């Protein structure tokens, strides 16, 4: 079975940092671009970041640019989202999501998400 | 940024009915680069439709997508109990990728 499993969420104070991880299984991880999509409590979906299959291309939403970084280790089938200078508006469930086509289009496999709460 | 607007926000329906959900883009979505997702409570979203009208693997035929340009529609015929969920549209013709705010189907 194909899976994406996120971890690393928690409660952090405004201005703090947190590192999210995503572990992939059941498919050839190194063939796929991966995105992060977040969902604030009771709200809709917001695309956050993308990393290409080989890690050479990264895109970020303006709302997180300069504060979040993304990386991957294809030898370990893992992905990370390093978040810093966190704000209350970053509070959300963060999903690790597989890009279906390789053209950074739409998302055919979602993890269950990890919750980040930014609060003092 | 392409803003996606879905309407209605909430739709009260009954099992067995057929319904259409609307999604409007603030600018033309090139090549019909539009997807639909279904999200049930406590679950991650699930891809239903891509390229505006192509069903994803395993999606029942009662789900269909249509539209072009700035107007898109998700149609569900003969609603089943498991179809009560929130539905999101998403464009991928422009950066950043953006979602609509969702339409909730409720009994």
Approximate strand percentage of chain A: over 45%
Beta-strand content estimate of chain B: over 45%
Cα Rg of chain A: 13 Å
Q: Any idea what the shape of chain A is?
A: globular
Distance between the termini of chain A: 39 Å
Considering residues with a beta carbon less than 8 A from a beta carbon on another chain, report the largest interface and each chain's count: A-B, 19 and 21 residues
Poorly predicted runs of chain B: none
Helical stretch tally of chain B = 0
Mean pLDDT of chain B: 96
Helix content of chain A: under 10%
Structural class of chain A: mainly beta
Helix content estimate of chain B? under 10%
| Molecular shape of chain B | globular
Your description of this structure?
The complex is a heterodimer of chains A (120) and B (107). Chain A has 120 residues and is mainly beta. Chain A contains no helices and 11 strands. In chain A, 38% of the residues are buried. Chain B is an all-beta fold and 107 residues long. In chain B, 0% of the residues lie in helices and 53% in strands. Chain B starts with a strand and ends with a strand. The mean pLDDT of chain B is 96. The chains are: A mainly beta (120), B mainly beta (107). Chains A and B meet through strand 5 and strand 10 of A and strand 5 and strand 9 of B.
